[in-house]
Amino acid sequence: MELNIASIEIEPKRHTFGHVAKRLGEDRPASRYEEAMYDAQPTENFHYRPQWEPEFEIYDKNRTKIKMNDWYDLLDPRKFHYMSYVSTRASQNAANEQSFEFVEKRGLVNFIKKDNLKKVFDFLTPLRHYEYGANMNNLAIVDRVYGTAMMSACLFQAEDRLGMAQHITKIILLLCDNDVSKLDAGKDAWLNCPNWQGLRKAVEDSFVEKDPIRLFIKQNLVFDGFVIPLMINEFSKEMAKNEEMTISMLTEFIVSWFEETIKWIDSVVKVMANESNENKELLTSWIKEDIEIMENTMETLVSFSNNPKELISTAKFDLVQRLDKCGISL
């Protein structure tokens, strides 16, 4: 007896969920990212308004002055949904772990000059608290912004910032042989050292910002546009000038993350600016205000360089170039 098992192909009746098909059409299969983003947030039939802000609905477009015809235009070009985000960060972390193992296995910490090591503790350790602040600000954006596209990406950003704080902690502990007093000293510098008080004030002032897009511009575009290029990129270069390359290896993860993240941030700013002249004028005024804050704030912090003003001007120039590509001329 011979048995032949034949396979048949069953044509699906539809290629995606109904609410996604309304945007893409019935015949176009949606990507995982599109299915996870489009119109996933409720828009009607809320039972009650939030008791802490009864003037708004739970999800309300009016929490920001920025106006969008469709908040789902603010898609993430990285197309991060849960699975793609987690798998990307896991592979990056595995590569990062290799750098730490290399430094530890070869005992490279023992070859770092004491002066360079002190600079790392002085200028890198307090940044843990800047990252905690960035984590809180992005969670505040998640709480108040409208649309799954922005909410989801900002939640990933918030988790990344917590990871950055932990990453800096790991670097410091590796360099000081797990002496936790170095972390306490970094916290004390964040709270009391005059050099850090400008940045600390800027971060703490941002905690009371209610407009989620205003906070997005302040934290993710302008604050990070100065802090990470100067305190990570330029600081690593300064270490390299002093014949110290280990710090560059250990901070490469942050540099790569920043280069990836600005693609999303610039895309969001570009779409919002192109939506209307009113949006563009509002964004421009916010950005100018925040740039002025950071120019004044960073001068005391870039004291690791002999030319702090030149470095700050370069960071500002790079940010202005990014904004110009987004359609915002300062």
UniProtKB/TrEMBL annotation:
- What gene does this protein come from? dmpL
Which keywords accompany this UniProt record?
Answer: Monooxygenase, Oxidoreductase
Q: Which domain of life is it from?
A: Bacteria
Q: Which organism is it from?
A: Arcobacter aquimarinus
Molecular functions (GO terms): oxidoreductase activity, acting on paired donors, with incorporation or reduction of molecular oxygen, NAD(P)H as one donor, and incorporation of one atom of oxygen
UniProt-listed InterPro entries: Ferritin-like_SF, MP_mOase_hydro, Phenol_Hydrox, RNR-like
The protein in question is named: Phenol hydroxylase, oxygenase component P1
